[in-house]
Amino acid sequence: MSLATLGLLAFLAITNPVAAQTSGNTSPGSGSPSASAIMENVYNRPKPTDTTALLTMTMVDSKNRERVRSLKQLSASFGTADKKIMEFQSPADVRGTSFMNWSYADSGRSDDQWIYLPALKRVKRISSGGKGDSFMGSDFSYDDLGERHPDKDEHRIIGSDKIGGEECWVIESKPRDSSFSYSRTVSWISKTTPIGFRRDYYDTRNQLLKTLVIRQTQVIDGFLMITQTEMHNVQNDHRTKMSFTSLEVNKGIREELFAERTMTKGL
Questions:
Q1: CA-to-CA separations, 226 to 56, 139, 142, 160, in angstroms, rounded
Q2: 232 touches 35 (CB < 8 A)
Q3: Lowest-pLDDT range of 42-51, 194-203, 237-246
């Protein structure tokens, strides 16, 4: 490879660049493990307690015209909750806009999400119906920025494949809740490490909508970190590239920072 976030991928939030610890990894099992066991292994992968990073988001339309946005991101785990804040630093028209996500280990609990728009001077909670919307004009939806629990989907192995010489399980996941943004996803998961390299997203008509891939990784303090990703909407040929720099882990980020006050005052 998150292939926070492969969300990334939803099972590995693409905007959370932690993928897996480089020491002590085990394969999902010998022979043919169940698809659910593989996805659980990815979800429960080792990860640092907290992460800080700078993020460059480059959006490219079908005519190769680019829009570039710079962000700062903080993410951390607190017991059964994973929390993240992203704040736009440039350009001027989006500076100060921030997004916060809280994901929970309880599979029956949906993510809590908020966005702060400086022009409105207020924090808005993202409703369940709005989580399928585009995040700030990118090819990622608000749903993609969360950490989706594997119990929310039914999984099955539909084949094997290679990505960059890495043997992968190809796993189809269908949501148990029909109101989810996608009818199904297909993920390429390493057979030797709890990590995903690619995910295809299908719309509610079961047509391929977009593909998320990992372009580059880097080992930092013993953890394999995602440093470049790309989401490609194949229906309108629009792409969003994300590049992570200045990555730091386990710096002791305080939980009280993940609050609406931080969103309005800035990181």
A1: 13, 18, 19, 23
A2: no
A3: 42-51
Q: How many CA atoms lie within 13 A of 53 on its CB side?
A: 27
In this structure, of 152-161, 214-223, 243-252, the range with the lowest mean pLDDT score is 214-223
Which residue carries 């079961």 as its tokens?
Answer: 206
pTM of this structure: 0.85
| Distance of alpha carbon 179 from alpha carbon 132, whole angstroms | 10
- Measure the CA–CA gap between 15 and 99, rounded to whole angstroms: 11
CA distance 29 to 181: 31
Percent over 90 (pLDDT), the chain: 69
Domains within the chain, CATH numbers bracketed: 18-152+218-228+238-262 (2.50.20.10)
What is the rounded CA–CA span in Å between residue 178 and residue 112? 19
- 196-202 and 208-220: which strand pairing? antiparallel
Token pair 């006050």: residue: 261
Region 99-119 average pLDDT: 92
